[in-house]
Amino acid sequence: MRFPLVLMLQALWASVCQTMQHYPAAWGHYDVCKSQVYTDDGLTWDYMACQPEAMDMTKYLKVSVDPPNITCGDPPETYCALENPYMCNNECDAQNEDLAHPPELMFDFEGRNPTTFWQSSSWKKYPKPLLVNITLSWNKTVELTDDIVVTFESGRPEQMVLEKSLDYGKTWQPYQFYATDCLDAFTMEPKTVQDLTQHTLLDIICTEEYSRGYVWKYDKTVRFEIKDRFALFAGPRLHNMASLYGQLDTTKNLRDFFTITDLRVRLLRPATGATMVDENNLSRYFYAISDIKVQGRCKCNLHANSCVFDKEKLNCECEHNTTGPDCGRCKRNYQGRAWSAGSYLPIPKGTANTCIPSNVGPVIRPNVSSLGVANRNQARVCDNELLRCQNGGVCLNNLRCQCTSAFTGLLCEKPRCESELGGCGGPDSGQTALSPASLPTLLLVLLLGSTLFREVSYWP
Ligand SMILES: [Ca+2]
């Protein structure tokens, strides 16, 4: 009875493997950190490079606006429409919830009508510049995966800079300059992202694309184009992510370019809609932003596939015996070799570069109080909750199964008597690889594999 079942499973496994070869993109997700595989030595863990899914990062940020009193409404103020200086009935009052425009309204759920937005005081101190910094802080390294999009409720500013920090706001670098006239504002030649090449991808440009006149009432967004930059390596529809991953892996500058801890929008000059500022109607000039989109993922150095928001902070749930907010170091007792980030290469599963025990072959001291206590970051051979040692075996410190006398193998899956008698082929024959006791585990492996079939909807 056993033989046909073995053949059937082998055929199933072969077809699963074959199918997966046709879906390399699904593997390119890097969404699994480890899986159990069956080798001649029994069940062992196979470790892979892994990363959390991309998500809406605006749910996890702290926003600050500087100068602090620049938000409108304290004292209450009225505004004129930019298009019509005689329509001055828009009111802002910080004390009245319906008329207040606090910074949080840049990150609330959009889709309601009318839109909700943050708004600055108007340009009452003209000709002194109306300067506002909006800083978004994650207190965590984040890798951007999609365009940053700022949607204005006012006219788009005539001059602004988007900046980034990689050291929690200590130092700042420009990401992109925006102006109606780049030469005049920043003495930079105007460019667009389409002018960039693989060799100039890291160049900081000034663009006039997003600052054109307020008359285009529906041109409300200012964009920092992440995907167009990815496309320089991955192709126009990002179909060749392997090429991008390969570049990210080998070029630290490129990786760092898309990595941030903070973003800062520096608003330098509001929309005026004309060459002259109308000094009699300064209530026309202000900034208002209804929405800011930032998509990204926690940077976990390819050592975690999830990131949790706990105590107001994002933290990677580190695997591969690593620890720290970015899985940036080896755990205690796992410093057998220097820490190293995981690698996207070779495509598609990458290299985990796990931390290994300080003393290879850790001394296991069975300790009654620690039996079955799961250390969630540790590489587990067995687990009393999920992957129970079989045939009466007991899991010791998640590191090995203590088998009863009749069984052997990593999970006590091999009948000892049969192997001694030569009846079940012995542990080295390979026949035991599909013994009935190991079938549930093989099915688990198949099940895990099948979860990787999901289609890629956007950059992973
Ligand atoms: Ca809003």
Overview of the structural elements:
The chain is an alpha+beta fold. The chain contains 8 helices and 24 strands. Helix 4 packs across helix 5 (241-250). It is elongated. Calcium ion is lined by residues 105-106, 108, 110, 115-117, 290-291.
Secondary-structure map with pairings?
Blueprint: H1 2-21, H2 24-27, E1 34-39, E2 42-47, E3 55-56, E4 62-66, E5 77-79, E6 90-92, E7 118-119, E8 132-144, E9 148-152, E10 159-165, E11 173-179, H3 182-186, E12 206-207, E13 221-224, H4 226-234, H5 241-250, H6 252-257, E14 259-269, E15 288-293, E16 295-298, E17 307-310, E18 313-316, E19 322-323, E20 329-330, E21 394-396, E22 400-402, E23 407-408, E24 414-415, H7 416-421, H8 439-450
Parallel strand pairs: 11-12
Antiparallel strand pairs: 1-2, 3-16, 4-8, 5-6, 7-15, 8-14, 8-16, 9-13, 9-15, 10-11, 10-14, 17-18, 19-20, 21-22, 23-24
Helix pairs in contact: 4-5
This protein binds calcium ion.
Calcium ion (CA) binds next to strand 15.
Summarize the structure.
By secondary structure, the chain is an alpha+beta fold.
